[in-house]
Amino acid sequence: MVVQLNKERSIANRFIAELRDTSVQKDAMRFRRNLERLGEIMAYELSKTFTYADEEVTSPLGLAKETVPAEQPVLATILRAGLPLHQGLLNYFDRADNAFVSAYRKHRTGSDAFDIEVEYLSSPSIDDRILVISDPMLATGRSLVLVHKALLRMGRPKALHVVSVIASTEGLEHARRNLPAGTRYWIGAMDEEMTAQAYIVPGLGDAGDLAYGAKA
Prior knowledge:
The protein has 216 residues and is α/β, with parallel strands linked by helices. Helix 2 crosses helix 3.
């Protein structure tokens, strides 16, 4: 299942537009906040797929029965660009466990080609848990697939969700071919093209640099 937010009219479209806008991108704090806002919106939409249970709570004036999520997910993200989007998800799933993976592009000398390197993993057990992997940009899809593979060292989740703000058609198709059947994708917007360096067009640029400053 693929849910694409900008196919419907909502405030999410304003946040996506600002993330793409070069004049707004000059404000790194606003860029991070817009990623966070989209994480919150996607968390709300994603929460509709969970199992729920009745819970009795005591108010100042009596007892109330509310239907609440029966379990909390494990929220995983790819450092460093994924942190604001992850925070948005965590704002809503505030009882969730968290996982962090360091993955980066290792470019080959004199070529646009690159390999994906996974260096660091910090995660609880994900065995029989709901796993949510967030990454602002789903370009080639290779990082996502390798991160999922790394997380499987920590167990086998019973459900997998992928959250991304901008995805390329090619990247989404690569993910769907290589991730488990039944994976649900929550995408802000889809773009058709990529550059020779595997950046999404029109995309929004380098999300990590825009959020936290250019790398040396």
